[in-house]
């Protein structure tokens, strides 16, 4: 492999994974014309076509298929080298890429980031709010805050707490709508969570099986906002009681165990001072918040 081929391999991998120049451009942040020229230069270097081009997109040729595993191996070695070097960093400066769900971001984590910023003015946090599980081992993020029952990733996983869940409504809904409910919660409205068995599994087995499921929202923060606007009731982490004082737990309902809250990071980065400061700070503050609820 020639030295300058290293420059083109990331674009080869992006097109191989995306199947088109435009999607590869979105993945890499490079315009698709530059990616196309890089692919052409790589093909000229090897003297072989790496992709079949058609209206449906780009598909690997037999030469591309042969190159793919070697390019992926090279990518992993480069990522590992980067993490190893970053792990030697002993300063309280630099950037940390941090991914978390919008559910936790706005009212739980944002105040903690503000305090951390005052304490460590030379550490910058690049936050990505996403409900998707971003890969730490593939260098999509440095630190992740994730709610899950278990973690099987090859990462350092720090379990913070179990997120207990309760059924919540607004104060107004509790005072004006709930007293009019019929047997099994008929006349009440559920705000469910889309994309899992929560809505159609847990809600019918709840104390209010006859309530109507009228809305499904994947973002817990949005569900809390809708509850505040008297739209209906939903399961929410008890942790939210401290940040949504207008919410009330439904009377005569039990708290149930939910997923655990984890902080995840790459094993090499646990030796990086700025990452360790951030992870230790989040751990302490979130545990204090959980105990004070």
Index terms:
single chain, about 290 residues, Arc Repressor Mutant, subunit A, 2 domains, seven-stranded mixed beta sheet, two-stranded antiparallel sheet, about 40% helix
Rough shape? globular
**DSSP helix count?**
9
Helix content: 40-55%
Alpha carbon gyration radius? 24 Å
Low-confidence stretches: none
* Tally of separate domains: 2
Profile the largest sheet: 7 strands, mixed
Order of helices and strands: HHHEEHEHEEEHEHEHEEEH
Total beta-strand segments = 11
CATH class of the largest domain: Alpha Beta
Based on secondary structure, the structural category is: alpha/beta
Task: Return the average pLDDT rounded to an integer.
Answer: 85
Strand content: 15-25%
Under CATH, the topology of the largest domain can be stated as D-Maltodextrin-Binding Protein, domain 2
How does this structure look, described?
The protein is 41% helix and 24% strand. The protein has 293 residues and is α/β, with parallel strands linked by helices. The chain folds into 2 domains: 5-86, Winged helix-like DNA-binding domain superfamily/Winged helix DNA-binding domain (Arc Repressor Mutant, subunit A, Orthogonal Bundle); 91-293, 3-Layer(aba) Sandwich (D-Maltodextrin-Binding Protein, domain 2). Strands 3, 4, 5, 6, 9, 10 and 11 form a 7-stranded mixed beta sheet that branches. Strands 1-2 form a two-stranded antiparallel ribbon. A two-stranded parallel ribbon has the order 7-8. Helix 1 (5-18) crosses helix 2 (21-28). The longest helix is centred in the first third of the chain and has 25 residues, at 62-86. It is globular, with a radius of gyration of 24 Å. 29% of the residues are buried. The mean pLDDT is 85.
């Amino acid at each position: 492999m020639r030295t300058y081929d290293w420059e083109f391999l990331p674009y080869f991998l992006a097109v191989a994974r995306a199947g088109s120049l435009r999607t590869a451009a979105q993945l890499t942040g490079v315009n698709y014309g530059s990616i196309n020229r890089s692919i052409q230069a790589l093909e000229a270097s090897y003297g072989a076509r790496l992709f079949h081009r058609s209206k449906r997109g780009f598909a690997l040729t037999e030469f591309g298929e042969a190159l793919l595993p070697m390019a992926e191996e090279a990518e992993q070695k480069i990522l590992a080298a980067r993490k190893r070097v970053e792990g030697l960093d002993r300063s309280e400066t630099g950037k940390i890429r941090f991914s978390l769900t919008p559910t936790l971001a706005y009212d739980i984590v944002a105040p903690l980031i503000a305090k951390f910023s005052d304490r460590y003015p030379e550490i910058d946090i690049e936050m990505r709010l996403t409900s998707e599980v971003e890969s730490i081992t593939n260098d999509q993020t440095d630190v992740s805050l994730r709610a899950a029952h278990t973690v099987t990733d090859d990462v350092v996983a720090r379990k913070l707490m179990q997120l207990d869940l309760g059924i919540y409504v607004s104060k107004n809904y509790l005072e004006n709508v709930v007293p009019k409910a019929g047997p099994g919660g008929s006349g009440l409205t559920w705000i469910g969570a889309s994309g899992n068995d929560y809505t159609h599994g847990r809600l019918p087995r709840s104390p209010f099986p006859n309530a109507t499921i009228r809305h499904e929202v994947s973002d817990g923060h949005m569900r809390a906002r809708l509850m505040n606007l008297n739209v209906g009731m939903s399961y929410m982490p008890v942790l939210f009681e401290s940040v949504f004082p207008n919410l009330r737990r439904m009377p005569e309902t039990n708290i149930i165990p939910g997923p655990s809250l984890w902080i995840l990071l790459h094993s090499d980065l646990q030796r990086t001072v700025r990452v360790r400061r951030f992870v230790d700070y989040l751990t302490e503050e979130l545990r204090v918040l959980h105990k004070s609820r």
